[in-house]
Amino acid sequence: MPYFDYWYVILVIPAMILSMIASASVKSTYAKYAKIASRRGMTGSQIAYEILRRAGINEVSIGRVGGQLSDHYSPKEKIIRLSEGVYDGSSVASLGVAAHEAGHVLQYYGNYFPIRLRNSILPVVNFGSSLSMPLVILGLILGVGILIDVGIVLFAVVVSFQVLTHPVEFNASSRALKQLESCGALNSDELPKAKKVLNAAAMTYVASVAVSLAQLLRLILISNNRRR
Fold first, then answer.
1. Whole-structure pTM over 0.85, yes or no?
2. Which of 21, 22, 59, 164 fits a disulfide with 118 by CB distance 3.0 to 4.6 angstroms?
3. In total, how many domains does the chain have?
4. 41 is in which domain, residue-wise?
5. 124 located within any domain
6. What is the DSSP string of 12-68?
């Protein structure tokens, strides 16, 4: 009788559906508030520059990157890369996203502990993300328990990295909203709209962790069943 992975159906598929819903939500929320121009009219690149200037950070540059919602901060290169719609956009959504990335810069220069902790395990995460599943699969095929265990431990490190991403992202959004208010880039009635965009984006991280946790639990249960 062929093997049926019912743990995948019970655990992973529902988490994947949640992840797809979260991804669709952030895209629709961004699209909605990207149509609402901010009253002051600052662009995403301008507000990112202003936040850095006010913090006395002069060595971080601001550039463009292709795609939508592909915005990110590269600490090694010391550059904030903003997508076209955010870089040139003056909507409440554009300002929220740009300020969020500037918030990451403030974390690095403010020696924010969660981001230091996350970066400290990054080499192990890179190693584990490429080897964890091959080791588990090989261990299951060969019936070698130690390979399965090592693979599961490495995958657990990857999940831990994703969990540590939560406070980092939520804190960057909190910093963004405070900066948008203190800079006067958004009025009091515009800030909740930017917050909705950032909250929707944060839910994609929550959903991503849910998928990984479901996968981790699945691997543990499969390993335990194989040993009985």
1. yes
2. 164
3. 1
4. 6-227
5. yes
6. IHHHHHHHHHHHHHHHHHHHHHTTSB-SS---HHHHHHHHHHHTT--S-EEEEESSS
